[in-house]
Every structure is written in structure tokens, then in C-alpha cells.
TrEMBL record:
Gene from which the chain derives: dfp
Residues of the full protein shown: 188 to 404 of 404
Gene Ontology molecular functions: FMN binding; metal ion binding; phosphopantothenate--cysteine ligase activity; phosphopantothenoylcysteine decarboxylase activity
Cofactor(s) required for function per UniProt: Mg(2+); FMN
Domain of life: Bacteria
Cofactor binding notes: Binds 1 FMN per subunit.
Protein name: Coenzyme A biosynthesis bifunctional protein CoaBC
Coiled coil: none
Family: In the C-terminal section; belongs to the PPC synthetase family.
Gene source species: Nitrosomonas mobilis
Keyword Flavoprotein among record annotations: yes
Region feature (Phosphopantothenate--cysteine ligase): 11-217
Length: 217
């Protein structure tokens, strides 16, 4: 039912993990595969939207979006989002952005010299929070992967980041897998979506987004 529901609308999506370099060959990342973000991009295309996809390092074929920007670190993803956000109607932040990055990145390969090696991490910018607080913010959708108190933590993130909609899931079953169970949380309350393939879930989530967006001020 969502086919053509976003005709002519512009949708910006982030997907995949980020990679925070430690030195020339090493870095910190997470196990996000990018599957859900890519499925959301395909669902947005199916809904008739013009789609820009900003991708962290992933190893999957991307859907035929209107524009794709590949990035590595959270800071690069933030720069790309700032660059692309103008004139978008909807921002869907699916990426598993690293919360911290090494305070220092060494341009050479670190040698195995120290008995104990201590890494200092500094916080990354919160991209979604930034976009949601822009003066003419697009309709913003967040994703929340949690391992406990899924609904409570997701709802507090939704309120904290001022999002009309957050999509919550269990990080343990969602990361890397082909299917997942989701809980949509908006101003009307919670809407569970029972386990299905991520492609199916993405279509359901996009239908919900289109419905909410249609009544968005
Ligand atoms: O706070 P948490 O990382 O769990 O929030 C999840 C949501 O915020 C996701 O939609 C994620 O893409 C976004 N996020 C972000 N920038 C960060 C951290 C999270 O855009 N630095």
C-alpha cells in the first residue's frame, strides 16, 4: 500500500557501520552489515522517493539509488550528511555510528612495543541529533539497537533526540541477520512488527513513515 506514497519526496538514508581508524591498518568498528539500511533505501525507492544513500563500509550490493556517497568514519558520515541534507523531506538514520573514536590516529602502523597499550577515545558527533534539531528539520526517523529494556531505552532516545518515530530492535538478533523483529514507537504508542525478512520489515516501516509523514506539520 505504500507504493507511490512518497512520490516526488526526497529521502536521505545512512546505512552500515562506521570505521574509526587507530593507525594505518587498524580501527574500531561494529558488526552492522548494512542490510537494514539498504532494505530501507530499496523500500524508499519502491515508495517513489528520490533517494540519497550515505554508506559506511559494507560488503553488499547497493540498490539503484539516485545518489550514493561512501564514507568510512563517523566524522566523514557527518560531513556527508551536512552536505546532502538540504531539501530532503525525510531523514532515516539506520547507520550504526560509532559513539567514540580514537583521540589520535597514527599515520604509520603502530609497533608491538608496549606491555599495555591504552587507547583514549573521544565522543563522535551525534548525526541524527544534529539533523533533528535543525531549524527546518526534515521528518527524522531513528533506529535503536538495544539488548535490554528495548522499548524503554528506545522511547527515551526518541524523546531525547526529538524524533517523531524510532524503530527499536534487539541488537543480539538484528545485527548481521537476514530477518528481525521490530517495534515502532511514535506519539501514538508502540507498534510491534513480528519477525520477518529485513526487506519485508523495511516495506512495513516505510509504509508507517509515509503515513506519519502525510500528517506531519
Ligand atoms: O543513541 P543511539 O546511538 O543508540 O541512537 C541510535 C540512533 O542515532 C540511530 O538512528 C543512529 O543512526 C543515530 N546516531 C547518529 N550518530 C551517532 C550515534 C547514533 O546519527 N553518533
Amino acid at each position: 500500500k505504500y507504493l507511490d506514497s512518497l512520490n516526488g519526496k526526497r529521502v536521505l538514508i545512512t546505512a552500515g557501520p562506521t570505521f574509526e581508524a587507530i593507525d594505518a591498518v587498524r580501527g574500531l568498528t561494529n558488526r552492522s552489515s548494512g542490510k537494514m539500511g539498504l532494505a530501507m533505501a530499496q523500500a524508499a525507492l519502491d515508495a517513489g522517493a528520490q533517494v540519497t544513500l550515505i554508506c559506511g563500509p559494507i560488503c553488499l550490493p547497493c540498490p539503484p539509488v539516485d545518489k550514493q556517497v561512501n564514507v568510512s568514519s563517523a566524522e566523514e558520515m557527518f560531513a556527508a550528511v551536512k552536505n546532502e541534507i538540504a531539501n530532503n523531506d525525510i531523514f532515516i538514520s539506520v547507520a550504526a555510528v560509532a559513539d567514540y573514536r580514537p583521540a589520535e590516529t597514527y599515520p604509520h602502523k603502530l609497533k608491538k612495543e608496549a606491555e599495555v597499550l591504552t587507547l583514549t577515545l573521544v565522543p563522535n558527533p551525534d548525526i541524527l541529533r544534529y539533523v533533528a534539531s535543525l531549524p527546518h528539520a526534515p521528518f527524522c526517523v531513528g533506529f535503536a539497537a538495544e539488548t535490554e529494556q528495548i522499548e524503554q531505552y528506545a522511547e527515551s532516545k526518541r524523546r531525547d533526540k526529538k524524533l517523531p518515530l524510532i524503530v527499536a530492535n534487539d541488537a543480539r538478533s538484528a545485527i548481521g541477520s537476514d530477518d528481525n523483529a521490530l517495534i515502532l514507537i511514535d506519539d501514538d504508542g508502540i507498534h510491534p512488527l513480528s519477525t520477518a525478512a529485513k526487506t519485508v520489515q523495511a516495506a512495513r516501516v516505510m509504509a508507517h513513515i509515509a503515513e506519519l509523514y502525510a500528517r506531519y506539520p
